[in-house]
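If you are new to this repository, start here. Below is one unmodified record pulled from the training split, so you can see the exact layout before writing a loader.
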Amino acid sequence: MAYKVPTSGQDRRKEYYRRKAVERSAKYDNQWANFSKNYRKSHPFCVECLKLGIHNTSHLQVDHIIPLEKRPDLKYEDTNLQVLCRRPWCRGYFSFMSFKENL
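And here is the target side for that same chain:
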């Protein structure tokens, strides 16, 4: 069966997000899910919220300080990990700074 080139904007977006999901599943497998869960148990607070005196334990994600795209060998290295929440001043700030560095 031949590959159909997406023509409409909606089809292109669907294809883009499908490809991103495939790439993401290659990086973040079941081993990472288990590791991340255990890391969040041992580090139960967002590090940026703690700096503000807030003990936030909701919507936590393990973040790579040096992105995986630059250093995939540091994926499971404790010194390259931090726990952040999804609040704009935590996760959003670091995402913006890493985006800014790549400009």
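Two things worth knowing about this chain: The helical segments are 9-27, 30-42, 47-51, 88-101. The chain has a mean pLDDT of 80.
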